[in-house]
Amino acid sequence: MIIRLPFHRSLLIRRCLFGLTILCALSTLPCPSASAGPALSINPDQQFDFADRYFSKGKYLEAIGEYERFIYFFPEDQRVTQAKFNIGRAYFQSRRFKNAIRAFESIIEEHLGESLSPSDLTTGSYFMISKCHLRRGAPGPAIVTLRNLLALSDDPNVRDEAYYRIGWIHVETAAWEKARSYFSQISLKNRDKYRVEILSAELSNSHEIPKKSPRVAGMFSILPGAGYLYCGRYKDALIAFLLNGGLAYAAYEAFEHDSHAIGGLIAVVEMGFYTGNIYGSVSSAHKHNQSKATRFIENLKKNTKLRVSKDSEDTTFALSLEYAF
Known about the structure:
Layout: H1 7-27, H2 32-35, H3 44-56, H4 60-73, H5 80-93, H6 97-110, H7 121-135, H8 139-152, H9 156-172, H10 176-184, H11 196-203, H12 214-220, H13 226-230, H14 234-256, H15 260-304, E1 306-310, E2 319-323
Antiparallel strand pairs: 1-2
Helix pairs in contact: 3-4, 4-5, 5-6, 5-7, 6-7, 7-8, 8-9, 9-10, 10-11, 12-15, 14-15
């Protein structure tokens, strides 16, 4: 005897049987908690060392990510500030100076009111911010940052370091007297360390740097080529003299033969070259002075400058001084 159920009831029964089959299959699967391996744990020492390895290999963006992970998972660890400082260093090494400045500024903001010592990371942040501004070609903000450090710190070693750095910024911009002024403020106990006496003696020779007056060069160039001759650019002087003389003579000849249109055109062209002769002479004087000042600065660095830098083998802030021979 065959019992036929209504269509909707037979469909309902098939669905129930299918659901029971799925439940039975799932019940035979192993329990995840019973078969899974041990849970992955993050060790603060291993995480910090992992970030350091990326940094030491020059993989600065990866290092930044790992230091940030360390800060996120271990916010109470005593190395959190060091990790933030290393993030700033990594941005600096990757030439992302604005990001580096923000990273170092965050350290300063978190430690406002605390004493500043030479080995303090907040002190290091001030020095690094100044260095970032210099790399961006902004000596003004670099000096302001170091002056802020001078206003906040009573430690003579920190202050002497700031005076020394400001002095060299002024040297780089050929502000000789300002440089001498800051070098002279270094304390007596550190004057030998920073070679203050040698620096002062060398800077006293800055008035002997050969200079050319841009005004005199411009006045001499009234006679085409004379301004270049004054600046020691003999080939340019000869070319300017011949070119301007030739064009002036051509214009004269054109007017003499009643070729006024051609003469006028040549005269306009000559006026352009004549003006260029004056401008070029003044520019040559500026370039001459800049070249001589640059050479003086390079010799000063070679003979006297100390390299103040972080120890590349240590991720804690430390100053290392080396004589530049």
